[in-house]
Amino acid sequence: MVRQLYYVIGETDYAICIATPTPSDYHITAGCYDFTTIEAASGAEFDSALSAITTHQNLPLIGIETRGTFLSPGKHLAVKILGKRQVQ
Question: Potential cystine with 49: which of 4, 10, 15, 38 (Cβ 3.0-4.6 Å)?
């Protein structure tokens, strides 16, 4: 299965999602979002960078994995963190 993973990042947990061709429990509304890319080589590095983002953004945030494997230790990871949706 080679689908892009999406993470809904909450106060105390992460929901791991994949795109589906039919409606599902979680839906990301189409539009333009602010985003920041986190690149990390460890869970601690990722948590530190995410913590810096959450001081300026409200939860939940949406993470889109762009490179790496999120749950494998020692792997390099790049995740785009979507923040506030911009009104058009």
Answer: 38
Which three-class secondary structure state does DSSP give residue 53? helix
pLDDT in tens, 19-56: 788 888 877 887 888 888 888 887 788 889 888 888 88
Q: Tell me the pTM.
A: 0.65
Q: Which residues does 39 contact at the CB level (< 8 Å), separation at least 6?
A: 76, 77, 78
Average pLDDT, the chain: 77
Strand ranges in the chain using DSSP code E only, listed in sequence order: 5-9, 14-18, 32-40, 61-67, 77-86
Give the number of other CB atoms < 10 A from CB of residue 36.
16
pLDDT value at residue 2? 55
Rounded to an integer, what distance in angstroms lies between the CA atom of residue 47 and that of residue 45?
Answer: 6
Task: Please give the Cα distance from 55 to 16 (Å, whole number).
Answer: 22
